[in-house]
Automatic annotation (TrEMBL):
This is Hydroxyethylthiazole kinase. InterPro entries: Hyethyz_kinase (IPR000417), Ribokinase-like (IPR029056). Pfam families: HK. It catalyses: 5-(2-hydroxyethyl)-4-methylthiazole + ATP = 4-methyl-5-(2-phosphooxyethyl)-thiazole + ADP + H(+).
Length: 269
């Protein structure tokens, strides 16, 4: 995986405008739809258990996000996930807040075992809690031991039989055998709610067009991070509000020049 392959994948997204079916949380719904549109994908949000299977089957990817979960929605997620599995549609999972409450943790584990995931994307604490490992938020914030994040990602990939993306200051993505670290992004991403959730849906857009799921996820991470760097430059030091708008614009405008110049993806053991 390299910058040129990420550029190619972005071109495929923009050409194909893949339909991304999201069952996501109420906080990020509008931002997610606008972010996918800006990138070049077609978002749809559909939640009713009566229609989720049909929608998932015609989508290029299904994104499940438990940010504001409730039992009705979780039931719909599992129905949609199983339908996507049957139809060969990639399923991307964001275990928002796994570890924060027992219900969230149990639900994250249930979804990850009931549905064959293509990618799970979360911060280190969420991924750790989804596979029953303990993790201290402090260690992540301090950026300590990226080696530990790599081991955690590999462990999760092995356990869940899926590609795992752990994001933070640096992002790690692995299928358990091949691992990349992506060193792009900007701290202002942490001051806008939903940037993690949108990223999970953006991974869905790439997985819809690139059947090598590891490459799809790595491409999404590098392009998203480069877009954030462009946005921070364009929005100056105005703050999160201007950054959020500039970030949508950057997802729309980011192209080969910036990705080849600023993309920082490295393969690690
Ligand atoms: N300190 C940071 N510096 C630069 N980019 C960051 C930083 N923290 C997170 N990011 C980026 O923000 C995006 C969302 O990741 P993250 O904050 O881990 O998700 P979540 O909000 O779900 O916890 C990712 O693209 C990640 O690379
Ligand atoms: C604030 C909040 N509360 C429940 S879901 C949500 C959004 C989380 O979004 P992200 O994980 O992308 O920051
Ligand atoms: Mg999140």
């Amino acid at each position: 995986m390299n910058n040129q392959e990420a550029i190619n994948a972005l071109q495929m997204v923009r050409q194909a405008n893949p339909l991304v079916h999201n069952i996501t949380n109420v906080v990020v719904t509008n931002f997610t739809a606008n972010g996918l549109l800006a990138l070049g994908a077609s978002p749809v949000m559909a939640y009713a258990k009566e229609e989720v299977a049909d929608m998932a089957k015609i989508a290029g990817a299904l994104v499940l996000n438990i940010g504001t979960l409730n039992p009705t929605e979780v039931e719909a997620m599992i129905i949609a996930g199983k339908a996507a599995n049957e139809a060969g549609v990639p399923v991307i999972f964001d275990p928002v807040g796994a570890g924060a409450t027992p219900y969230r943790t149990e639900t994250a584990r249930n979804i990850a075992s009931a549905v064959q995931l293509s990618v799970i994307r979360g911060n280190a604490a969420e991924i750790a809690n989804t596979i029953g490992e303990s993790w201290t938020i402090k260690g992540v914030d301090a950026g300590e031991g990226s080696g530990d994040v790599v081991s955690l990602a590999k462990k999760a990939a092995e356990q869940l039989k899926t590609v795992v993306a752990i994001t933070g200051k640096e992002d790690v993505v692995t299928d358990g055998n091949t691992t990349y670290i992506i060193r792009n992004g900007h701290p202002l991403l942490t001051k806008v709610t939903g940037t993690g959730c949108l990223l999970t849906s953006v991974i869905g857009a790439f997985a819809a067009v690139e059947r090598d799921v590891l490459k799809a996820a790595a491409a999404a991470l590098v392009i998203y991070g480069v877009a954030a760097e462009i946005a921070a430059k364009n929005a100056g030091d105005e703050g999160p509000g201007s950054f959020q708008i500039a970030f949508l614009d950057a997802l729309f405008r980011v192209g080969a020049d910036e990705i080849s110049r600023y993309g920082r993806i490295e393969r690690v053991e």
